[in-house]
Design goal:
The protein is an alpha/beta fold. The chain contains six helices and twelve strands. Strands 1, 4, 5, 6, 7, 8, 9 and 10 form an eight-stranded mixed β-sheet that branches. β2 and β3 form a beta hairpin. The longest helix has 20 residues. The protein is globular.
């Protein structure tokens, strides 16, 4: 697995991440969603540099010009619900991509340990395509691994890109162990060192889903 850490080069990404982390700016949920969306644009642009192109001739009002056009067939997959604005940023750049959606949630036991469950997925065929999986926070990587296992039933992509806004060192190590030498590239814009006792990234930014869409009401204690 290859890793592209976009934070190694100073760019406007730093502004977006700073606002996402800032507890005061987080009070504006629309601003939070927009920053995730803008990060999706930047990630998609950087990712596009690693894709395949073919030369096509375009006719202008004054003549013809050969231009490189993206030839890879893309599938954008996201983990509900926090990933939706990040996913939308990708979709506005890769506007011809197909889409997949996966639900994944943590189920805690009485001692605070948790497992990841997925009970919904929709996806096109992944055969001979480039799969891009987006998830805002790569903490333990458990939800990402569950999502990938669910997607495996839809075909074998030529390459997999994974995009996470903030990743933990532990989560990256878990993905390295899971994917090994497979054709996978991880893209991140920040890496934090710690995880809390409940598996949240520290300092991270909090619960991205709640910050984007409002605090959820947990009706079943076993799911909280």
């Amino acid at each position: 697995m290859r890793i592209n850490d976009l934070s190694k080069t100073n760019s406007i990404i730093g502004n977006f991440i700073t606002e996402l982390r800032d507890a005061n700016i987080q009070q504006d949920s629309m601003r939070f969603r927009k920053n995730l969306e803008r990060l999706g644009w930047v990630f998609a642009y950087e990712m596009s540099k690693k894709m395949n192109y073919e030369i096509m001739t375009v006719e202008t009002p004054l003549g013809e010009k050969e231009m490189p056009l993206l030839s890879d067939k893309l599938v954008l997959a996201t983990i509900l619900r926090a990933g939706l604005p990040f996913h939308q940023g990708f979709l506005e750049v890769f506007d011809n991509a197909e889409n997949a959606f996966i639900s994944a949630y943590r189920k805690y036991d009485e001692e605070g340990a948790f497992d990841i469950f997925s009970d919904y997925i929709t996806s096109p065929s992944l055969d001979e395509k480039v799969l891009i999986i987006t998830d805002v926070m790569l903490a333990t990587a458990a939800s990402l691994i569950v999502a990938h296992k669910a997607l495996k039933g839809y075909g074998k992509p030529d390459h997999i890109h994974i995009a996470a806004v903030i990743a933990s060192v532990e989560g990256i190590d878990a993905l390295k162990s899971y994917f090994g030498n497979k054709s996978v590239t991880l893209w991140v814009s920040a890496i934090d060192d710690e995880l809390s006792a409940k598996g949240y990234i520290v300092p991270g930014l909090g619960d991205a889903g709640d910050l984007a869409y409002g605090e959820k009401l947990c009706k079943f204690v076993s799911l909280c």
